[in-house]
Amino acid sequence: MYALLFEKPIVELEKKLEELRHVSADQALDVSGEIERIQKKIEQSRREIYENLTPWQKVQVSRHPMRPYPLDHIRRMTTGFLELHGDRDYADDRAIIGGFAMLDGRSVMIIGTQKGRDTKSNLECNFGCPYPEGYRKALRLMKLAAKFKMPIITLVDTPGAFPGIESEERHIAEAIAVNLREMFTLPVPFISVITGEGGSGGALGMAVCNRLLIMEHAYYSVISPEGCAAILWKDRAYANQAADALRLTAKDLIQFKLADEVVPEPVGGAHTNYDAAAEALKQKILKHLAALDKLSPQQLLEDRYRKFRAMGPFKEPEPESRRRFRRKKS
Question: Which CATH number fits domain 60-309: 3.40.50.300, 3.60.10.10, 3.30.430.20, 3.90.226.10?
């Protein structure tokens, strides 16, 4: 099983546990007491480690190869998922999946960015980095939801939009910009969830919403820690320091009022229990949907506008010349 570097103490305890079980089976020894003690130690170590993760460690958890991707959540949260394909202009981008589904007996449009588990599926999904046609497909589905007055739910897990020449040839910046503009005009409840990586405009192009939720060990940032380190320190090895400076964790996003609520994950991360992670996510979505249902279409648009207008307030320092003038005048 894949393990992150900071999980090494847990891995060593699990190896001891496995060895004890083999000894117990081979030699017919009763070591149940010792097994129980190690199991408790594993749970305690896992809890202590995951309660004190650094920002860089959280980024690593968000990228865990066994972390549940949006399609994993969709299959557990909803029923009757009917996937729709294509942007009706160029192609079907497999990095973005979406379609109709039933959430707790209610019709919704659910859209997500998708990664792969192995080389073949990663190539098919372009490692979770959408092309322009992916964003155009997403917008087509969002407008379809608005036409039928269905809530929109987007699940975001992408390092960012694909930056290659094919994207530039097909106008990736324009595709994302159009999505940003058009998402402000959809008069239906709109909830976005950062389930893993929330990378730059590639994530924002799916998340102009009424309520933004973020899973406990996910991140949402204007740039990846590696990209930030390459710019500021000219060396990607400083990604650890960059992650601290970017303030990209769920806790930071709540503090800055960018996200509305954190979705708790099972101890040890969502990859340890897909069902529990999906259930927690479903309950949070239902909670916020119930609140948004009380708003009229016009109120939903105004709520979304106010949410984004309130982001990123800052205060510029007063120039020294103005301070001198004010002192002289007084």
Answer: 3.90.226.10
